Amino acid sequence: MEKNWYVVHTYSGYENKVKTNLEKRVESMNMEDKIFRVLVPVEEETEVKNGKSKSVVKKVFPGYVIVEMVMTDDSWYVVRNTPGVTGFVGSSGAGSKPTPLLPEEVEAILRQMGVEEPRAEIDFELKESVKVKEGPFANFVGTIEEIQVDKQKVKVHVNMFGRETPVELEFTQVEKL
């Protein structure tokens, strides 16, 4: 199962309470393997009142929290029945699963909040030889033809049956020779 970010609608003003309640429910119901992070998207702004400026934290999407989770019947039930939650955004009718946020939407929200996704350190270079560590091409040696930093992937050409075959792999699936 794949983990994705979902938008959850809450009663306005209850975003932090929903976050706290949901985190407690995840722990008490042993759902740590299905529900990972609950965020109330906020940003810091400078407000000027009576000639004085002060920093305030404002909710980016009042009435909403975002949840990183693997969508199963159980995880859906835990989130849906958390006090203060009115439902998932992007579900079209009863019984249908909600639509996850697109990776670029999540990236934009996290960047706006100053929270960056953990990134793998890369020290690969184009045309460098690497060995595939895992997956169907494990132990094959190939040449890096493309590095996609944003997706954390490399395109490696491996020699299979006398032919160069392009293979897209995660950074973590290859190692330097």
UniProtKB/TrEMBL annotation:
SUPFAM superfamilies with a match to the protein in the record: N-utilization substance G protein NusG, N-terminal domain (SSF82679), Translation proteins SH3-like domain (SSF50104)
InterPro entries the record matches: KOW (IPR005824), NGN (IPR047050), NGN-like_dom (IPR006645), NGN_dom_sf (IPR036735), NusG-like (IPR043425), Rib_uL2_dom2 (IPR014722), Transcrpt_antiterm_NusG (IPR001062), Transcrpt_antiterm_NusG_bac_CS (IPR015869)
Gene Ontology biological-process annotations: DNA-templated transcription elongation; DNA-templated transcription termination; regulation of DNA-templated transcription elongation; transcription antitermination
Any Pfam family hit: NusG
Residue ranges annotated for the NusG-like N-terminal domain, each copy included: 2-113
KOW domain: residues covered: 123-150
Gene3D superfamilies from the UniProt entry: 2.30.30.30, NusG, N-terminal domain
Keywords tagged on the record: Transcription, Transcription antitermination, Transcription regulation, Transcription termination
PANTHER family membership: RHO-INTERACTING TRANSCRIPTION TERMINATION FACTOR NUSG, TRANSCRIPTION TERMINATION_ANTITERMINATION PROTEIN NUSG
Protein function: Participates in transcription elongation, termination and antitermination.
Family the UniProt entry places it in: Belongs to the NusG family.
Protein's UniProt name: Transcription termination/antitermination protein NusG
Organism: Anaerobacillus arseniciselenatis
Gene: nusG
